[in-house]
Amino acid sequence: MLLLYLPVLFFSVILHEYMHGYVAYRRGDDTAYLMGRLTFNPLPHIDPIGTIIVPALCFMSGLPIFGWAKPVPVNFTRLYSPQRDMAWVAAAGPLSNVFLIIFAALALKLLIGLGIHSGISIALFMVVIQVNLILAIFNMLPIPPLDGSKVFAALLPRDLAHRYMMLERYSMIIIIVLILSRALNYILIPAFYFSLSLIFRFIGVANGQF
Known about the structure:
0% strand; globular; mainly alpha
């Protein structure tokens, strides 16, 4: 199963970062484009911590495997409406993961309805759903520099948003402590399994029994 998780995770985090850069480009900032980051070539997107260390820590800690790619550079001052567009740029990444979840869930529902599913197809689409579900939930946590913090900051008055985003300097320490202490389990796992149960209901399977 790990052999399925890793390539799905790799593709999902690259799409996630690509969409940040693409929406920023559409909203006036071509920084990612000029730096060669608007690409699906995996090499420019590899982040030693998010692409290698965090997935390994999750595997050893018993958490669902997740991670991230190297953040796409965005110059928010070049956006047409910096505070509003910051929220759209930030949300684009998790929304790309939601899109993959919807695609995989629809594919599974169709295959099961037609009676042409196999063990491999079920395993693949379930991995796509699980990986992207945990990516979407994790990235929407309001911890700078995660995407949820930028969406939340866009709702705050400018001065308060600036002070809030200053927490970013401690972000990696906070996240790694949350993982190693297993405190993240109490946030991610309930939300993960609740969302997964809704997806199973949509697909039409009871408790994931295909």
